[in-house]
Amino acid sequence: MFYTQDRTQQRQFLANAWQKFLNKQVLNPLETQLTQVIGIHPEYHKLISDIESDYSPEQGKVNPYLHINLHLSLREQLSINQPLGIKKIYQKILIQTKGQHETEHKMMDCIAQMIFSAQKNNMPIDNQSYIHCLQSQSH
Fold first, then answer.
1. Which residues of 112-138 are buried (b: 16+ CB within 10 A; e: fewer)?
2. pLDDT per residue over 62-99, tens digit each?
3. Which of 30, 23, 26 is closest to 1 using CA atoms?
4. I need a surface site. Which of 12, 31, 82, 128 has the fewest CB within 10 A?
5. Both 7 and 58 in a single domain?
6. By CB neighbour count within 10 A (0-12 exposed, 13-18 middle, 19+ buried), where does 12 fall?
7. 106 belongs to a structural domain
8. 1 pLDDT band (50/70/90 cuts)?
9. Contacts 24+ apart (CB under 8 A), 84-90
10. Is the pLDDT of residue 46 over 80?
11. Shared domain check, 58 and 2
């Protein structure tokens, strides 16, 4: 994954990947993953090129960059089954929702809660709480 703390660089990377996809240029594996996620979110297609906009929940706006990165984070977790058991939880939720996209969104809510809680409390990520949240999504 493209790791940087620089918001502009991160956003530019996503915007460039999307533009390469639109221009039918060869994509590297990460760009392919990014464009697959952007592709299932038509509401973000025009927003991706605007790397300067701010998105705040108070304004009722979803941050497309954060949303895309949450999808990627979840997919990475699933690919390596970390935290342990996440694949099994994913399968349970998938059976209930009958769709990969909806399943990912339910699970991403837990990722967002985990990140928010860790940042708010200035604590490390609590994997137990994360797994508990995921399990509650599968009932």
1. eebeeeeeeeeeeeeeeebbebbeebb
2. 899 999 999 999 999 999 999 999 999 999 999 999 89
3. 30
4. 128
5. yes
6. middle
7. yes
8. very low
9. 85/131, 86/131, 86/134, 89/131, 89/134, 89/135, 89/137, 89/138
10. yes
11. yes
Among candidate residues 36, 64, 92, the one where a domain is terminated: 64
User: What residue numbers bound the domain in which 46 lies?
Assistant: 1-64
Q: Does any domain span residue 125? A: yes
Question: Number of structural domains, the chain?
Answer: 2
Determine the Cα–Cα distance for residues 3 and 88; give it in Å rounded to an integer: 28
Closest CA to 1 of 59, 55, 80: 80
105 and 138 assigned to the same domain? yes
Contacts of 107 (CB under 8 A, 6+ apart): 74, 89, 90, 93, 134, 137
CA within 13 Å, CB half, 29: 2
Phi and psi dihedrals of 61, rounded to 5? -105, 135
pLDDT at 31: 95
